[in-house]
Amino acid sequence: MAEKTNYNFSVAPEKVDFMLHATIESLCSDILNVAGVDAKHKGISADVLMQQNRSWVLSRLSVELDRQPKQYEEYGILTWVNPHTSRLISTRNFELSDSEGKQFGRAVSQWCVIDFEKRMPVSLEEVEHLFTDKFCDAPSPCEAPRKVRGIEPSVTRKHEVRYSDIDFNRHVNTMRYIRMMLNTLPIEYLTEPRPLRLDIHFAKECRLGEVLTIGYEQRENLSLFEIRNGEDAVACTAAIEWK
Amino acid sequence: MAEKTNYNFSVAPEKVDFMLHATIESLCSDILNVAGVDAKHKGISADVLMQQNRSWVLSRLSVELDRQPKQYEEYGILTWVNPHTSRLISTRNFELSDSEGKQFGRAVSQWCVIDFEKRMPVSLEEVEHLFTDKFCDAPSPCEAPRKVRGIEPSVTRKHEVRYSDIDFNRHVNTMRYIRMMLNTLPIEYLTEPRPLRLDIHFAKECRLGEVLTIGYEQRENLSLFEIRNGEDAVACTAAIEWK
Q1: Coil, helix or strand for A118?
Q2: Which pLDDT band holds residue B193 (cuts at 50, 70, 90)?
């Protein structure tokens, strides 16, 4: 069995928004960076899977933030991978704590292994040997990602995928979807930071040059988003619950 | 006389582009962060000027990059302020070096002190007392920012200023202008990193909700940009010379 592992961060000025708090995008980015670095340390990273023409793909993410740390604040992210209980989904957990050890955030991520040749998810049984002694059987720190469906946008915006949006695969960087969504939200929701829960589901990759449509619907305390690709297929959906 | 002061950085994954090199935007962001932190350490920061309802405003910046460091690479930024030779402009210099001490970049920034009440630049003589022993009389490491004028755009794009673009003043974050420009450049210029020089001139502030027009002209090895605000006034101009 592996232990939970901690990684330290600080809120550099480029990570804050106009309220001088770390953006949701930057905190999610740190969470994903931790996933990448920890997987590398444990020998279960995309690099290892690539030897068989496979890679990890992030499918769903839930993030609860009691607060967003301020500029220059230091914090830690604790991470661990649960033993697989699903044939296709691997669960990696995160706890975010301030420099005094007080927890202010939690996240649960769900990943698939994709075979690039077949363009299909692979059964985790095929990679189980990599995980010997890599699991930590501690419960997830919050509810797993919820499904986000049935969004009926009342506001839509267009966004053309450009240079600053893409990753090394020339696909839209996962975190950019969050940026596009927050850029569609009325600014009033972002002037008073308050506890929130984000559920996000990545369904399709978007590419350089595609014109995306970001749809937004407010349903009571839920801000709902869907991003459609250039062919009008749903690429990403999300909900922010304001607490 | 003060010494040159060094600050260390590493290229976190959120700082790279699809070529896995630190973006020009992220390197310029680090340069400006160093300016802010070093000014704070030396007691010449915007906080101190704010006591008299004044602040530093970045007017022009020149940056030379022999190369852009790779993801996870470590590097240092050395900074110093020159004795004032102009009544209105303070010059702060930067040298970027890799972990082995090899210099790969240089920058010169020119700043004004603005009086918020009069909305006018202040003579540096009025703040000269702050600078006792804070100057370092070493020459700038590269040519001061050049003027960028007479751009005749052959390509234009629109960009509405949204949440992720603004700083704590609700003005467009200085670094976002660079992002907008690179997002307008044909992607081919960014697939083969090569030495470059950037000259950028900040003329006007842009605000949340304004629809900006980004114009681009290619003139031999010069990529020229101008950004116009919602009233069609030039807010920012820049040139990238590809070497």
Answers
A1: coil
A2: confident
> What is d(CA B81, CA B127) in angstroms, rounded to the nearest whole number?
14
pLDDT exceeding 90 applies to what percent of chain A? 93
Q: Is A227 helix (H, G, I), strand (E, B) or coil?
A: strand
Contacts of B26 in chain A (CB under 8 A): 14
Integer Cα distance of B227 and B238 in angstroms:
9
For residue range A47-74, list pLDDT tens digits in order. Answer: 999 999 999 999 999 999 999 999 999 9
- Mean pLDDT over the full length of chain B: 96
The class of domain B5-131 in CATH terms is: alpha beta
Collapsed DSSP state (helix, strand, coil) of residue A122: strand
Fold of B155-242: Thiol Ester Dehydrase; Chain A (3.10.129)
Domain residue ranges in chain B: 5-131, 155-242
Inform me whether the C-beta atom of residue B164 falls under 8 Å from chain A C-beta atoms: yes
Going from the C-alpha of A140 to that of each of A59, A136, A146, A184, B153, the distances in angstroms are 17, 10, 14, 31, 54
Domains A5-131 and A155-242 belong to one CATH topology: yes
Residues A45, B63: Cα–Cα separation, whole Å: 36
Q: Which amino acid is at B57?
A: V
CB-based contact (8 Å) between A46 and chain B?
no
- C-beta separation of A97 from A104 below 8 A: yes
**pLDDT bucket at A1, cuts 50 / 70 / 90:** confident
A184-204 pLDDT per residue, tens: 999 999 998 899 999 999 999
Q: How many helices (H) and strands (E) does chain A have?
A: 3, 11
Interchain CB contact of A170 with B (< 8 Å) = yes
